[in-house]
Amino acid sequence: MKYRLCILATHPIQYYVPWYRALAQHPQIDLEVYYCHRQTPVQQAEAGFGVPFDWDIPLLGGYKSFFLKNISKHPNVYRFFGCNTPEISQIIKKNSFDAVIVHGWNHLSFWQAIKACWDTNTPVFIRGDSYLWTNRFFLKRWLKNPLYRWFIQK
pLDDT value at position 47? Predict the structure, then answer.
């Protein structure tokens, strides 16, 4: 039996690709990776690299990947509304995945996928590296605290 696994990521990231390839090679996993945004060389520079560039290694080979239609007015991977891909909901509902992995909860697209998983009783795994007490404006931290405590139960 093959398990149908869906992964949702903002964009191709060089250090995740080997993991995706390994999962795709596993004989019991049928993997599909969906991306919310196609980064431009300039956006790569804005990510902190300082100069525009494209990765010099292939990021899309060795596993099934798809780019979703990002309907954000200002597509990017830095803001919550920068990734808005409502079609992920229908993809999850239609494909009956055994599980879905999302790389966080800091983009609208991730919440669209999480909600679709909740609606279909599809197990959803949320990978994140957020820290509640990150140095940010007090009101923002205060508002996020109850949400995070509810969402990320100990």
Answer: 67
pLDDT higher for 31 or 41?
Answer: 31
5 or 132, which is more confident? 5
How far apart CA 82 and CA 43 sit, in angstroms, is 12
Q: Where are the alpha helices (DSSP H) in 51-137?
A: 87-95, 108-120
* Cβ-Cβ contacts under 8 Å for 71 (sequence gap 6 or more): 84, 85, 86
Alpha-carbon span 7 to 113, nearest angstrom: 10
Q: What is the mean pLDDT of residues 129-147?
A: 69
How many helices (H) and strands (E) would you count in the chain?
Answer: 5, 5
Tell me what the mean pLDDT of segment 91-118 comes to: 95
By CB atoms closer than 10 A (0-12, 13-18, 19+), residue 83 is: buried
CA angle 7, 13, 16 (to 5 degrees): 60
Gap between the Cα atoms of 4 and 99, Å rounded: 7
**Whole-prediction pTM:** 0.85
CA–CA separation, 7 vs 35, rounded Å?
Answer: 9
